[in-house]
Please model this.
Amino acid sequence: MKFRVERDLLADAVAWTARALPNRPPMPVLGGLLLTVEDSSLSVAGFDYEVSAQVTLAVHAVSSGRSLVSGRLLADITRSLPPHPVEIAVDGPQLSLRCGNATFTLPTMPVEDYPSLPDMPTTAGTVRADAFATAVGQVAVAAGRDDTLPMLTGVRMEIDGERITLAATDRYRLAVRTLTWKPEGPGSSAAVLVPARTLQEAAKTLVGGADDVTIALSGSGAGEGLIGFAAVDRRLTTRLLDAQFPSYQSLWPVEFTGTGELPVGAFVEAAKRVSLLADRGTPVRLQFETGGVTLTAGGDDSGRAEERVEVVYDGEPMTIAFNPTFLLDGVTSITGDTARIALTTPLKPAVLSAGGGTAGADDAAGGVPDYRYLVQPVRMPG
Model:
């Protein structure tokens, strides 16, 4: 195998694929990247039996072949190369890389020990790349990080005709986003649980230069198949989670005692400043009243912070407390300039959504916001 390729193209392809590799591979070969040259194209691929990532790019090929090398090491090398074309050749158990005056020689691993890459599942439809990235970012922030509760580490993807609903929860907050897409066929319907980390990676890294992202599904349910994402010259697949996502539709409050319109920029900056005095695990208190909200944190013994933000508030005065990280995650996920917070009581969840007059605040199917973020308050002393 021998070929020449532009440095930036190679570095980008290797870096993207290497991100999908496990930090501690159970077998050395699973920490490798498979380089395959055929005709005038190079495939850079990684697979650990759960997640696969593959990039295809054009190269000037002298001879075809396959080689397996350390993914992390190759990513570090290609990222630091000078701005010159890269020449790569494989000779027996070694891969040589030359770029300008720099030369590297890397040991290869046995290609025959590497698992076969999974085929891309059946295409289910396409979605706008920018809308998909925004929606996943809004929802995945609420996914759990505890691997002992796998049902909370995923994002539930519900497909119903031309609509996709994404939902995630870690028991303390719940984020739900609905968006439209173009299904491959009429009457499409499915509900799967996708690992949140992989979904975030797909959403963030597939959008560059792509107008649409193709979503592909196989299997009849969670744990029985794969989900794949593809855009331009990149594709990523991951095994679905075999877990039951919690029923969440009944969690939404149906009546509210107060609503406030928060200026996102001013409120976020104030909350960040005040939360500097919120020790780990202590909340930020919000006192809503006509014309404004007062944010406070800390106490007389440990220091105290207070700041008032002008808001349009309708309802009885209320003081409620939140974990500052959970609160900021919800407010910063709002894409407009104004966020609406709907309150029930100081001990029941509040709901954040886009504020009045914000594009996309209401869904065309009946006034339900296309993005909602439910956050559980923290009980205040006394």
